[in-house]
Amino acid sequence: MPDNKQASTDTAEAAEASDASKKAEVESDAEGTIGAEFGDEVLEPGPKKADDEKDKASDAYHAKVTAKAGTPTGLATGLIKELRPKQWVKNVLVLAVPFAAGEILDPAILLDAVIAFVVFSMAASGIYFVNDAIDVEADRQHPTKRNRPIAAGLIPLPIAYVVCVLLLGGSLLISGLTSMQLLAVMALYIAVQLGYCFGLKHQPVIDLCIVASGFLLRAIAGGAAANLVITQWFYLIVAFGSLFMVAGKRYAEVKLAAETGAKIRKSLKAYSPSYLRFVWAIAAAITIMTYSLWAYDIREFEMSRWGLISIVPMVVAILRYAVDIDKGVAGEPEEVVLKDKVLMVLGVILAGCLFLAFYL
Questions:
Q1: 3-class DSSP string for 39-63
Q2: Which of 70, 78, 269, 301 has CA atoms 20 to 30 A from the CA of 148?
């Protein structure tokens, strides 16, 4: 009997050592040795305390947020937070077409692209106000979404709708004064996003296409603002590259729900991990194919081999990003990239190759 107890103790210690080893590997990955670990803290949540002010799901944190409700400071803070300026980094995509057209150094075209960036930031922020105002009651039942400015009472609903109208209306007005083509793109973007907010986000496949289309419309807006024309291969790269990232994010959400039992919205329940894997794998393949075709166009029209050379960092970057997707930790694209140093380096190399192709 003592020998059996000793064997059980040794087995338990071995299991603990194995768990520690796995934990160390995950921490190593977080440093960029394998891939970004965004989301691991959600996949393996630790014990939560109701009185922990640093835990966004705790009652103490929620009480701290709502304490500012009804005050000018709370309103100002809430408005800034609801604008979600961190999300504006996505709008840098408006510079893609001027850059790929070899015109980014032209001051007039750069100014048009900056205007496109501004109107897209205004429109995107306006959509956030609409979405959170519509979902306010549901958000108040959610452990973390209840801390959003509108759900927490920092921004009264009437003010939220007024700010929304100002942002969306201002976006369309500035677009119309800049270019009718830009106005058309912005009107389409706002219409599609409003459809998403009012119910299309609950429709399987449609929700994937709408989110991916937002990235594509950003790229189109950059060309529309400056009246630039670019090969169709470029737009296909953006379209399928966006679908690749969006499907990867959905895959991470579905995998999270399967592992933790977390609640997910209606559209996600229609997806299986195998289906989403199928979608992002096909999207990745098409992205690589269309990029290669565009790279050969660059060699033909720009008389530069740097376009062909850029295929290497492009393919490696997609494969690297796919590691994060496969692990189920691919969240917002910009956060995945910013948390993976290797992806950032590959992005710089890719941009350098294209700069040499278009501007050398």
A1: CHHHHCCCCCCCCCCCCCCCHHHHH
A2: 269
